[in-house]
Amino acid sequence: MKVAVEANELSNKISIVSKTVPSKTIKPIMSCVLFDVSHDGTYLHATDLETGVKARVQCEPDGEGRFAVDAKILYEIVRTLPSEGKVQLSFSSGLLAVECGRSKFRVPTMDPAEFPEISLPSEGYALDIEAKTLSEMIDRVVFCAAKDEFMRNLNGVFWEIGKGFLRLVASDGFRLALAEERLSTQSESSFLISLKSMKELQNIIQSCSETRITIRYDGKRLSLSTSNIETVMRVVEIDFPDYKKVLPKAFKSKVIFSKDDLIEALRRTMVIAKRGSESVRVEIAEDVLSLSSRSPDSGEVSEEISIRKEGEDIIAAFNPLFLMEALRHVHTDEVEFNFVDSTSPLQINPLNVEGYLYIVMPIRIV
Amino acid sequence: MVALLDMDSFFAMIEIVRNPFLKDKPVAIIGWGERTAISSMNYAAKRYGVKVGMPPHMAKSLCPQIVFVKADFAEYESISLGIENLLCERFPIYIRYSIDEFFIDLNVPRYLERLIELKKEIKRQYKLTCSIGISPNPVLSKIACEFSKPDGFLIVEKEKISEFLQDLDVSSIPGIGRKTQEYLRKIKINRVKELVDFAKRSVCPKTLAELVESIFTIDFDRKEFFKKKPPKSFGHMKTLDVNITSLSQIKEIGFYLLYRAFLRMIREGYRARTVSLILRYHKFQTISLSRSLKEWSSNFLRFAKVLEMLIESAFNYEPVRMLGVSLSNLKPFSVEQLELFSNHEKLLKAMSVKNLEISSKLFLT
């Protein structure tokens, strides 16, 4: 069996699917990508058993067949080949020959029968959404998910599909991000998708050319099909915390200010904060927001920015990185801080934009 | 000058105060397990040759009438903290050397009065006696303290060091263990004065010569000695009474050990990033694993989740005889990042208390 493919196309598709290949695995077959050449087309498969990806490769096949080859080796080979020009893949007697110009590689393959089958849910609920919208929603919440894998209930993004909306929520236990979009949905369901799968999904959405995409959910798996790539991801079977309970209901103080002013002030405050207690004191008084931080060895800093305030003066302390990351994901010029008190969650909203909010817990100075 | 305050037969005396029936009887404190050893004994038991670390059956053969009391470490720790409170009211600089030993910097006015007052106050509040050795350096203070036991108070002025030491047996010097003693006795060195002469000769091993020199030092580095060294980790280990093959029991014991390490860490004002697990199987094969959080934490639940994962990956269903858990990679706890979904009270209620009860039962029966 032979396949002739443009180097760019091969490199692009291997790059997409190989992100799914687990970095450490007990079964050697799991570190492979599967080539499936049939009359339906040529597909590259990769899976970590939680997420599966199937990418269609535009090529000229000669014959049919399947082989599995180490993803890392193949990716490195393809990356180093000249980007212009054709790559000739030939598979026979358990060996894959990769030829491009005057370069020739021969790499061992593995039994394709051992490779786990990737099947997309054929039934279930379908959600039609604009690719750019979903990508933005993911981008706005995914950074808040817990990075530690053993925090299984927080190491992912919670999907909530209600009548007329899709909501994504992520939290690491200290902060929470929520993005919501009005959609013409009729059914209701909720599930948790792991952080790794979410990054995979985002990667595929960003690399697809379609403006609208269809997400399918069958109760256990979530899938996305574009013209060239199909992906399926298993839902994490664990309860996401009841996030609605921690959303503040009423506020004592509302502050509006320029996002860039606060980002700049925070950037400077962090010079000292990161050398000290990693906290920044936020004081709201009249029409000024003051930031301050001190370190026993590196000195102290104070900053002020102008604000518009409704309600009471307030003093609270926060991890400056949490504030910074929230502000960087806000796309409006002005931002709203809504305070309850110094030990309750702070709610951050982009000004006059619905569907996005960010909650951050304060720091208690011991 | 520096003092060493050492409680006399600390654990055994606490038990005797709690239970006057034990008075005048040879008493030894043992752990809860079957594989336990003696951790403390009173002077009546010492007279029979009973020593720390001895298995109970050996102590029983030396002293058939010995009474074994199972240790109550929480009580000992609490009394030790009480004694430390009395100490820090009188002396600004000291270090806790062990649960019942404190080195005290005497660079304060009227230090003798303060020490005598402290000794009296310990006796009055806890009905326990202690011995205090005072000298120009910590090693000598330790020797003086041991020499003065029980209920002693001995000052060795710098002019009297040689006079005090010369007739002492070499075994009274801390750092001279059984092997060194055997070596010295072979070459007919039994008393400190003979050791001092030997240390001047070139044939004397360097470490031994340095040890002898340290006893005579009159200007030790006080600042360095009393500097509070930050802890590297907080951990607990448990040799199990019976080998365990159940994953859920391993987890329960692991959580119990973690909980104790966690409480100590919080009490001393630290946060941690790394959780470590040691499992020793019945054939003494030992596995140790660690995992770090992305951020420093003071949240028990997060550590418990890491520990659970470590146990699940390390445990191979062979009988386990020893389990150890520690928290390391520490940072002082100056701020507390509040949590969205949990608080400590809820947390303990949800997870530890139940497990603690089960674990305690496991240890007690």
Biggest sheet of chain B: strands side by side, in what order? 5-6-1-7-8
Low-pLDDT residue spans of chain B: 344-365
Judging from the principal axes of the Cα atoms, what is the shape of chain A?
elongated
Question: Could you say which structural class the secondary elements and strand pairing of chain A correspond to?
Answer: alpha+beta
**What is the count of DSSP helices of chain A, taking H or I runs of 4+ residues?**
6
Category from helices, strands and their pairing of chain B: alpha+beta
What is the compact description of this entry?
The complex is a heterodimer of chains A (366) and B (365). Helix content of chain A is 19%, strand content 44%.
What would your notes on this structure say?
The complex is a heterodimer of chains A (366) and B (365). Chain A has 6 helices and 27 strands. Chain A has 366 residues and is an alpha+beta fold. In chain A, the strands form 4 sheets. Chain A has a 9-stranded antiparallel sheet. Chain A has an 8-stranded antiparallel sheet with strand order 6-2-3-4-17-16-15-10. Chain A has a 5-stranded antiparallel sheet with strand order 5-1-7-8-9. Chain B has 4 domains: 92 residues, Alpha-Beta Plaits (2-Layer Sandwich), CATH 3.30.70; 63 residues, MutS, DNA mismatch repair protein, domain I (3-Layer(aba) Sandwich); 56 residues; 117 residues, Dna Ligase, domain 1 (2-Layer Sandwich). With 365 residues, chain B is an alpha+beta fold. In chain B, strand 5 and strand 6 form a beta hairpin. Chain B contains 14 helices and 14 strands.
Features:
A: 366 residues; DNA Polymerase III, Chain A, domain 2; eight-stranded antiparallel sheet; 6 helices; 27 strands; 44% strand; elongated; B: alpha+beta; MutS, DNA mismatch repair protein, domain I; 4 domains; five-stranded mixed sheet; 44% helix
